[in-house]
Amino acid sequence: MSEKNKPGPKKKRAPKEPLTKKIQIRVTEEEYAHLKALGKEVGGMTALLRNHFGRVSIRSRRDDQEMRRMLGRGLGLLNQIAKWCNVHKQSMESLPVKARLVEVERLLRAACDHPEER
């Protein structure tokens, strides 16, 4: 055996809590095959699922729908304002409005770049 392949000293493991609970879910054949393939890469489905505990966040679909609805209203309003600016291109009144639109665009781009900070 070469130096690289020799096993090192065994590390002491922290005492494990007994695994007494079981989770069962029903999946389609396609979902199962996908999970099995992912699990094969990391040492089994159990390892795959345990590795993902704490990394997965559950989002409320109702909250997402409300957020999309509000975003749609806001974007509709911005579109109306932009149309008004196009109609009044030569007017001095449109300059502050255009400046605010640029600011709103900058804020929206920043929010899209960092969606986790909502």
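Next protein, fold it too.
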Amino acid sequence: MRRRTGFTLIELLVVIAIIAVLVGLLLPAVQKVREAAARMSCSNNLHQIALANMNYESTYQRFPVGCYVPYAQDGRHDCQDLTFPFGPNWAVYLLPYIEQGNVYNSVNVGAYPGTTLPPGFFSSPSIGTGLPPTSAPFTSFDRTWRGLRGAKIKTYLCPSDPNNQTPYDDEASTDPTYPYDTPPEAVWARGNYAATSGFTDNDHTSNGGNATGNNPYDGSAGDGVVPGNPANPAVSKGPLFFLSGSGSNGTKISDITDGTSNTCAFTEIRAGYNQLDPRGTWAIGYPGCSIVNAGRSYNPTPNNTLDSPDGQTYGDEMQNCYKFWFYGLGALDYGCFPAVPGNPTAGEGQDQQNSAMARSAHTGGVNAAFADGSVHFISNSIDNFTWCILQSKNDGYVLQTNSY
């Protein structure tokens, strides 16, 4: 009698089915391990950035500024406008401290601004406001530092973000009608980390202003009530990083009266939804690009998915959101507004880079580095008030144990 040496078709199918089941069981575990490794790598990046910030402080006795903007002032919309000659940001200044000195030295960062503002610039509306970026004195600013904008910096990239290899490149915009909503330079490399700048619109905290009179938690109960305090006092927004008119007035350790272990310094940001979305651009020192400062009811906590059919209500307040907006971006963790452009003949668009929330590709929350160098994982379920006071260096409130 001949011995059978092969498998029957049924046996082969059974083996294949068993293998398929095992793969199906193992695949989620493999994906979880891969994401855990990516999240750990991301946490390490933030730790390196926080250490670089501490080393910078040891050298200069202050933190780097959020962004050097000589015309920065509360209420000035042009100081957060992408089309104007904004200067280097915190991520540029920290390059030598994350072993990227060659990139830093490839341009003359110190050449900015290369000019001075004319007398009366801030006091005269005819000089200081309403001018387009193509007019004096803005045309005389030295922008050569932007030559490093295309450099890919590994330390500034989270391995979990699938969009951070597509640069911000608004020259690809198909809408030539609105030239006021993009920088003149093309191809800006992505980044996934942002410095904190309080929790109100960016111009209000210019030069380190506490912006107690601005929403949220301004004492009026119009947008936020301090929990457990019937008096509902106005809360200091106390930014660690801010728009700076001098470039040399960064936060000092002594300014952080809440304590460095109680103050969030850096967190995550998502790279743009597509090439027209400026969010997650490491060399631009504006909200959504490399700054987070949101906390109002329409953008209250990390990774919120708020959205609105008209694109005028929820998410990050972005200058050029209308170029890529569609209803459903919020559900994808890319909520933003406005969804309609402004009037370019008025000298500026409808909006600017006003505010943006921390966002990540991780499940359940965002990594955050505190001012003392420690790194924590902030849950998406954190309450709004706790999230806000984490961003302030001098609000005076005591964080509850395990509150985030």
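About the second fold: Residues 12-390 form one domain.
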